[in-house]
Structures are given as C-alpha cells and as structure tokens.
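Protein entry
_____________
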Amino acid sequence: MSSHLYIGGKSLNNPSLFEKINGHLYVTVFQVNLKIEYSIETKRDDELEALCASSVSTAPIGREWSLQLLITPKSYKYNVRRLPYSQKAIKALQRHWHIAEVCFHAHLKAGSCAMPYKPIPSHPTWKGFLLRVMYDLPFQCTLAISHDRNTQTTYGICYGGPSPNISLFLEKFQVAKEHAYQALLVSLILADMALTELETSNSRTFDDFIPVREATGCNLYFLRDGNFKAPDLSEMPASLLAIGVIIGQLDVQLEQEQLLSQNTMVVKMREHLILMREVVYGTTRRNNYLKESIQAQVQMVYALLAQQDNALNHRYGADMRIISAVTLLFLPGTFVATLFSATFWDFSPDNAGAKVSSRVWLYWIVALALTAAVACIWRDLPLLKQRKSSAKSIPSLSEQLCE
C-alpha cells in the first residue's frame, strides 16, 4: 500500500479534500448460535482507527457470519466532493477493512457507477463492490463493500447520503438483517431506494404535466387544480441510465454468487433485480412518452399563439385599411386647404393687387427639401444601425491577431 495517495491531482495530505465528521453510525449484524445480533453505535472520527483494528481482532465464539457497516451522513450543504474521514481513519479502513483506494478515488472523481474491485489483490476469497449513486437522483451516496468468503465477514462504508435517507435505509435494513450474510444486500437496498424515489419523481412529473394538457384541451384524465412546478426532464435520461448500469452490475455479481453457491436468497435477490430492471424500462418508456407528448403540446401552444397572432394581424390590417381610406378621403382636401390658407395667396374681394405672391417658389423649395431629407433619413438610418451592430459583434482583423 502506498504511503501517499493522489486523487484528482491532489495528495490525500491536502486538507481541502477532507470534511471530518464525528457523527458516524457503526452498524453491526452477526449470527451466533442461530441468533441474530443487531446494534447501532455512534462513533467519533478519532475512534475509527481503534474501531477498525478491534473489529478484526475480536470475534465472538461460534460466529457464523457478520456485517460491519460504517454510515456517515452528509453534513455539508452543497454537493462538495470531500471525504468525511481523517487521514488516519482512511488508512485504518484500508489496512483492516480492506477498503481499496479506488473507492475514495470514485467519490472524488466519478459520477454514478457500479463496479467490482479487489480488496486484497491476488486473494481469491476476498471480493469487493463499489456503488456510487449520483446524477441528480433523489438519493445520493457512495458505498464500498469488502467481503471474505472464508470467514463470511463483510465490511462496508456508506457516506454522502442525507440523514432522512439514511434513517429510511436503516429501517429497511433492520427488517432484512437476517439476510445480511449476503454481501450485496446493502447495495440492493440502496439501489432499490434510488429507483423507488426516481420512479416517484417520474410519476410526479407525469402528474404535473396533466394541467398543461388541460390548458390546451388535450387532457385525458381529471386532476384538481393546484400549484404546480414546471418539470425538469433534462436529468431524467441520465438518471435512468445510471440506475440501469447499477442494476446490471448487481445482477452480474449475484450471478457469480449463484454459481458459487445455490442459495435461495441469491435467487430471490436476482428476481428482485429483474423486477427493478422492468421498473427502469417502464419508467424509461413513460419518460419517452412525456418527452414526445410535451413536444407535441409545445407545438400545439405555438400553433394556438400563431392563430391568435394571425387574428390580431387581420384586425390590425382592417384598422390600417380604415385609416388609409380616411386618409385618402381627407388628405387631398386638407392639403389644398393648408396650401391656400398660406399668405402666398390672397383671394379676398377687397384685394385689388396680385392674387399670388411672387415668392411662392419658396414654399415649394422648402417643402421639397424637407421631403427629400425625410426620405433619405428613412432609407439610410436602418442601414447605419445595422452596420454599427455588425461592427460591434465582429472583431477586426487586428484585434483577432492581437488575441
């Protein structure tokens, strides 16, 4: 075993990788003379080194099998990739419980994964299994299991899970504690919890989509009004894929276990995995249906908006035609009245002089000049704005060369 470990470019001597916690739960289950013993104790981090050493050296007489699991709840607010142990505790877990280095690598570097590992290299009786549940799943944790077939002893660490999920896991584990001689029992319970919460989240998303169908007139079922949150389906395919990979790896490990020993519990666990795989397939089909249905509903909403815009355009077109007709009727007369009301013309009866001023040409020059200026501004101003926006968005050749 190396004295210095490097994870993600950082040594385990780096303090930033650790989030030392003192609220560890030490769960032990063992069978002595056909009697199941189950206990839970709270341990501090400075007690873990002695705990790992004593748990290996001391064993009750007549013990048939045992499981020792160290559970560490998530104490930090954000999903920071840190190890909840001190350096001494990690070395003790590696030395006595044979938790391999790759298990700590996975927590700091990997996403959801399920893989076997060798607790003791080139030792045929030892096997290990690593389970990491991530990718925006409702239940997230890292689990590492090492198992010795000769002594039927299982060691494990589970960390990164929220306290409510850990409480639920302990309830489920206590019910199935008589089957704890199976090394993959903890992995199966955690995978089942993750799949259950994922399927519940998918069903909630399906229910949240029904008001959209009601609003567009395509609802098939009745649902009461309520406050709904827009569903986010971006992470659902990745979550389903992660659960599928975990179930596949568990099935492979149980298949190997079944080849070594024809145990009834192994068969039941494989049957439960088959059921979990079918739930994943069903959830995937429902998610695909939601995707296609939401796309159809979005297109329908766009079509309805286009119809409303078309109706508004027709209304605006009718209004513009009315305005054009009124302008066409009154503009010539208004122009003539405005023109002849100027002082260039004098048609009063008492005017004995000229009826039209000799400087009437000034009116036409000013009017034509203003008309030409307005026409030029109307034509050139949009072009100038377009050129300025293009110049801002596209850097010059000199700027590109400098960069």
In short: The first strand starts at residue 6 and ends at 7. Residues 211 and 226 are 9 Å apart (CA to CA). Strands lie at 6-7, 10-11, 24-32, 35-43, 63-73, 113-117, 126-133, 141-148, 153-161.
